[in-house]
């Protein structure tokens, strides 16, 4: 049987292509030249009810195939000397298919074999949700669904759901998104095939396909055909945080960042949209917050901007998670609601906050709880995704201890600060849970204030140190790795606070891509605890960043975690990820980013980029 | 007398404007609003024989006055609330004047007072060349010259030189350039005056003038009139090195960098144009070098490009110094002349070079000496400036010890390596000296190989450590500070060599602007030795840089040394330079760079930039 043979082959190959990032979980490639025919097309005709965002993804793929003028990173930059592209086979068609187990009699006639091809991926680790037959009939799961109106099963007619859009798949909880796909590109010019359970899986496969091709003269070609790929992410959360409050980023920059996330198959954009320094979020229910809290009238995000970014991202398989950090990091609310904020701009700021200006929500006050509830409600109306971060980091006790309002209420109620914080947190998280959202918090909410009674579905971001992950999972929470000692992209540029001539970055040194790439998501965790690891994300806090430096600060560094959390601990060559193998591929990714308008920084002299391993330390 | 009064005033003021960088040596400003009138113009009518590049500088100044939409860095970004700009006086005219002692009867009728105004600057330190009466009559000095055809002096008629262009001034040896100027901007709307001995001095004053103004609504205004400025650089060499061999930079990027240098009054662009990784310099006499040594046909600098950059720079008071590093850092020559290069790409590279690929000129061979002489001759034909760097850093002994050709010649001649290096250096430097150039070398040529008999005018770049400066001046050479421990802009981004997962940058940590700003050019030097300090420069080696990161890597950091070496150890407030005072002005400079298309990075959250000292460490 064809599929069994394929599985056998996958078990014994070790060659690695230089082109793909993240490298697929299972990959076989050859050494045959293949060109794209002029009439090459991506064919969705076997899929019924193609959603618009899949059509758009196909269109984008065709565009980059045409416009990526990506020459191979070899001396001379092209194969003209040693490969006769004119004699190579030409690929005319990439056929897209949605695999459905309940759809035996439709255009795809391989039958159950399609499942066999995908399932081996699913069973390789135990924390991914398996596609079971039960899922197929449950009607509520939006992945793996038949692209039909009515289908026959067990002798009865069933009504099908429509094929879910990429955006709909992206709005699911991370654990429930199915991003798996298979991709075969024969070397003989016969049809290439991309198959997936979901449109989101097809998107991931299209991205892989788009990374296979180089340009020389008028050729679009590979020299590594055939390709056989079985792929799906090892971890379900592959995120990137951007802070738009310390310094503002126009939505063009955010959308470009999301495009780069799509290219690296990242799937959660953690938007730290407001903070003590500025409040650029323009909510119709709270016009005063932005009017007084934004840096200027041009440095704001309207709900139209939000919708624009979110829909742009969703179509690219990227879920946007907003963060409104509370009760700390809220000084900017003072400008419109001074009565809600304790210790505003109190000096010395070092006593009352981790960063200037000081200022925290008076969390003891019912009016503040109510305000925060309404603020969250108002915000999540605009976010189709399941996650919303309420922050909770770096709460300054002294700020509250010296605040007369908070003190009075605590004294009168006989409550401790921790009890007040628990009440504030639970009351404000209620709003999220009732709306079907999962609260996301920074690690202090679990480790620093006793048991706050957080909802069991709360996701915890581990940031202070990678060593803190274990303590959080021991409390039973799902975690996302965001450790400052590996993943903070802002470190290493000296102190940004003033009058500190010898100051270094608090999280020195600079976090290289190699450092991020060496992170072990399961370090010190038991097997059971490992199931609580959702994934990880790199982060850019913007004290020393701005739109000019955005791309080069993020890319290609953030691609390190993208591969780490997609491909997981075992690469298709059977080995662990290592920086020596990865570097040539990362040069390639950087080159492709540049082709697509992302100003990713050069990692080495071009001399080295053109000569894999010539500049390795030996 | 007016001038005497002015000097008195200069001795006792302490207020500092937030707008100027580098801050003038002597500066008084007020707190009166003044706007530019719609009909504002810069008037050169008192100057006879205005060279085209001064006209162009006036035109550029008018352009930036119109197009810098630079709002004040205050909360609200404008003075609308507290200053009635409509009622402010309007400045209609900035008059430019060339001061000439021998020109008593011409349009400027203040007589010798003009000299009095400038001379106090000159005598503040002893290593600047003084303008003496003798200079005036010497005929050969191109600064301070009368703008006339014939003038009367001591009862006789003398023929005047024509007024020298900015470019001609810039091509002088650094010590001989006169960049001094005075600038007065009254608050009552009466004529502002910019006076200098040279067109180069006028250019510096125009730059200062252009930094004084902000935009609000339709106003171009200052709130700090009147201004009284006496200014000239404390050090004559304020440089910036860019390496275009590890990674290539198109000339547009180089010209933008030079524009930023003009804005900060830097005056030497040290162009490390070729190296072992690539040879992008296209010399008509050596077409093979670039044909084989450039990364690609699009990554080359033609002599037309050179002329373009050099004339662009010269018109902006920036002298371009090319560097062709020899005998090391020359592996790229192998591609066209394998017979000239020892140990090409020999592995492990760590044994034979500081960076891959290994490869050094076979300095013992007469053909190589001849080649290098011709290479230098061919290059300096295109550089009007007085400086040319022959490098001389990081010579690898092992490379030569294992090279059969070099060994054979040494053995047959009975010479040591040091003797061969001395011969090579003197023979190749001869070409420069005969052509009126001053050789420039890295510190090893003085400290590491015994006495090589360098020409007394050789300028030495101290780079390995700031502590090495003393050893070099003790040998009697003029130095330029370029210490890696203060001024290397590439440090701190991790190792760029491959397969080195935990590698840090060799010159960790990142060199902040504060670090550069804290440098003491005269540390450990005697008064006599101090006269050998020409100045200093920050440096960008491009292993991990590219056009995308150029601006944000350079700016505003490199402005630190620009001010350090322009303003010197005593600021107009009588104090030493300090980062607390400097930061708000540096924010301002960064903002102005952004207005002019230079993507200088944000140093702090905008919250801090708008509130001087709110984010200082306290």
From TrEMBL, chains A, B:
Q: Does the keyword Signal apply?
A: yes
Instruction: Establish whether keyword Hydrolase is in the entry.
Output: yes
* One Pfam family here: Glycohydro_20b2
MF terms (GO), sorted A to Z: beta-N-acetylhexosaminidase activity
User: Sorted alphabetically, which InterPro entries does this protein's record hold?
Assistant: Beta_hexosaminidase_sua/sub, GH, Glyco_hydro_20_cat, Hex-like_dom2, HEX_eukaryotic_N
User: Record's GO cellular component, any one?
Assistant: membrane
Major enzyme class: hydrolase
Secretion signal span: 1-19
- According to its UniProt record, which reaction does this protein catalyse? Hydrolysis of terminal non-reducing N-acetyl-D-hexosamine residues in N-acetyl-beta-D-hexosaminides
Beta-hexosaminidase eukaryotic type N-terminal domain span = 20-212
Q: Which residues form the active site?
A: 394 (proton donor)
All copies of domain Glycoside hydrolase family 20 catalytic, residue ranges: 235-568
User: Which stretches are annotated as coiled coil?
Assistant: none
Family named by the database record: Belongs to the glycosyl hydrolase 20 family.
> This chain belongs to which protein, by name?
beta-N-acetylhexosaminidase
């Amino acid at each position: 049987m064809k599929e069994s043979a394929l599985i056998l082959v996958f078990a014994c190959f070790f060659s690695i292509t230089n082109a793909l990032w993240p490298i697929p979980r299972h990959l076989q490639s050859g050494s045959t030249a293949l060109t794209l025919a002029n009439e090459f097309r991506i064919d969705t005709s076997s899929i019924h009810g193609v959603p618009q965002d899949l059509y758009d993804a196909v269109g984008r793929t065709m565009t980059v195939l045409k416009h990526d003028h990506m020459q191979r990173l070899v001396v001379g930059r092209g194969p003209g000397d040693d490969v006769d592209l004119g004699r190579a086979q030409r690929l005319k068609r990439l056929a897209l298919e949605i695999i459905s187990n309940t759809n035996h009699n439709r255009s795809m006639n391989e039958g159950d074999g399609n499942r066999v091809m995908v399932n081996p991926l699913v069973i390789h680790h135990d924390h991914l949700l398996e596609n079971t037959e039960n899922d197929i009939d449950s009607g509520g799961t939006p992945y793996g669904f038949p692209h039909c109106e009515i289908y026959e099963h067990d002798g009865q007619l069933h009504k099908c759901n429509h094929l879910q859009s990429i955006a709909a798949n992206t709005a699911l909880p991370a654990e429930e998104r199915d991003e798996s796909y298979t991709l075969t590109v024969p070397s003989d010019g016969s049809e290439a095939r991309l198959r997936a359970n979901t449109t989101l899986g097809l998107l991931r496969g299209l991205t892989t396909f788009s990374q296979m091709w180089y340009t020389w003269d008028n050729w679009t070609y590979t020299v590594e055909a055939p390709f056989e790929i079985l792929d799906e992410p090892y971890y379900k959360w592959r995120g990137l945080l951007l802070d738009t409050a310390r310094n503002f980023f126009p939505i063009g920059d955010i959308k470009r960042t999301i495009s780069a996330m799509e290219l690296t198959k990242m799937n959660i954009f953690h938007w730290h949209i407001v903070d003590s320094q500025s409040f650029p979020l323009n909510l119709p229910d709270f016009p005063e917050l932005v009017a007084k809290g934004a840096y200027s009238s041009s440095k704001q995000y309207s709900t139209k901007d939000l919708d624009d970014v979110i829909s742009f991202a969703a179509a690219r398989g990227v879920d946007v998670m907003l963060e409104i950090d509370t009760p700390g990091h809220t000084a900017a609310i003072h400008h419109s609601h001074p009565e809600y904020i304790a210790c505003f701009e109190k000096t010395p700021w070092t006593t009352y906050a981790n960063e200037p200006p000081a200022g925290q929500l008076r969390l003891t006050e019912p009016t503040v709880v109510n305000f925060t509830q309404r603020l969250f409600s108002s915000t999540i109306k605009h976010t189709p995704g399941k996650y919303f971060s309420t922050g909770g980091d770096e709460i300054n006790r002294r700020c509250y201890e010296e605040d007369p309002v908070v003190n009075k209420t605590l004294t009168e109620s006989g409550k401790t600060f921790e009890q007040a914080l628990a009440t504030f947190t639970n009351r404000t998280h209620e709003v999220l849970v009732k709306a079907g959202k999962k609260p996301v918090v920074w690690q202090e909410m679990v480790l620093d204030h006793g048991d706050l009674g957080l909802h069991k579905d709360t996701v915890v971001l581990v940031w202070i140190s990678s060593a803190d992950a274990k303590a959080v999972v021991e409390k039973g929470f799902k975690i996302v790795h965001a450790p400052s000692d590996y993943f903070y992209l802002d470190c290493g540029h000296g102190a940004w606070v003033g009058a500190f001539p010898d100051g270094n970055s608090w999280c020195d040194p600079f976090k290289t891509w190699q450092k991020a790439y060496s992170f072990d998501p399961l370090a010190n965790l038991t097997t059971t605890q490992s199931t609580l690891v959702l994934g990880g994300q790199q982060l850019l806090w913007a004290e020393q960043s701005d739109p000019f430096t955005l791309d080069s600060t993020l890319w290609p560094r953030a691609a390190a975690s993208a591969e780490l959390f997609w491909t997981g601990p075992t690469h298709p060559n059977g080995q662990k990820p290592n920086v020596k193998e990865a570097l040539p591929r990362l040069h390639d990714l950087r080159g492709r980013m540049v082709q697509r308008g992302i100003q990713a920084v050069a990692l080495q002299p071009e001399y080295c980029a053109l000569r894999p391993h010539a500049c390795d330390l030996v």
